[in-house]
């Protein structure tokens, strides 16, 4: 006899959370502090028919193209309506109720650069997408035109000067956020002879009213923080972002 309809989703959520925590136990000490996953991440590389599955072992060729992804409340099932045989532009889907006071970012980081035994480049920033707020499909060009830093700063100042508006008791940006690739996708390329690297996707949640203040790291190496093992934890803390979901895979160079 199955679980009652209202209990089954809670059981599924508990098992899902336990699986994430167990699977990420090998990355927490160097990448993430303890967190409670409230979103499930589905990450797919359509052109290579590859799906990230919490620690699967992959070749660099399988994860070379920019992936597509969706994230949804852990109680909600994946939409299952992606045509993953195609290679579309980046697709983001949020299938939980709209939260206008929040924005989301997804990142990919390598805590094992140059190698796990000698992580002198750790962490290495491989990808950052920010300003994700709306449910439904959001399309981004894989390689958007780079906005000059001065122009980007002027746009941010204008948006801040126009202030925020209030929706009920919630503050939301005066202009809708536009998803933005802060760091273009750098395909994983572990050096030969360095064994498997961990590549970690992290979903971060922040305040939508300050989303435009989030900036790309100065450098990919150490995320610009100038020290071994410095990375996404430092960047998230600088901009007040919290971890709400994660996944990862292993990859190493062909022998």
TrEMBL record:
Protein name: Phosphatidylethanolamine-binding protein
InterPro entries per the UniProt record, alphabetical: PEBP, PEBP-like_sf, PEBP_euk
One GO term of the biological process aspect: regulation of Ras protein signal transduction
Region (Disordered): 139-188
Compositionally biased intervals (Low complexity): 142-162
Gene Ontology MF term list: peptidase inhibitor activity; phospholipid binding
């Amino acid at each position: 006899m199955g679980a009652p309809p209202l209990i089954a989703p809670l059981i599924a959520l508990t098992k899902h959370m336990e699986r994430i925590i167990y699977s990420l136990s090998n990355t927490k000490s160097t990448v993430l502090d303890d967190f409670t996953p409230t979103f499930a991440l589905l990450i797919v590389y359509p052109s290579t028919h590859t799906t990230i599955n919490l620690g699967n072992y992959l070749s660099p060729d399988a994860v070379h193209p920019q992936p597509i992804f969706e994230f949804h409340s852990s109680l909600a099932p994946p939409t299952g309506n992606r045509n993953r045989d195609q290679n579309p532009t980046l697709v983001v889907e949020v299938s939980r109720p709209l939260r206008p006071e929040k924005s989301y970012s997804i990142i990919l980081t390598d805590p094992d650069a140059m190698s796990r035994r000698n992580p002198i480049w750790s962490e290495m920033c491989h990808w950052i997408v920010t300003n994700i707020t709306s449910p439904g499909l959001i399309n981004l060009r894989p390689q958007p035109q780079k906005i000059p830093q001065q122009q980007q700063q002027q746009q941010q100042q204008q948006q801040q000067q126009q202030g925020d508006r209030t929706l009920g008791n919630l503050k939301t940006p005066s202009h809708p956020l536009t998803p933005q690739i802060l760091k273009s996708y750098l395909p994983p390329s572990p050096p030969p002879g360095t064994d498997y690297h961990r590549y970690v996707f992290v979903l971060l949640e922040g305040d939508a009213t300050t989303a435009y203040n989030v900036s790309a790291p100065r450098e990919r190496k150490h995320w610009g923080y100038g020290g071994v093992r410095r990375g996404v934890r430092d960047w998230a803390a600088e901009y007040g972002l919290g971890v709400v979901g994660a996944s990862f895979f292993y990859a190493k160079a062909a022998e």
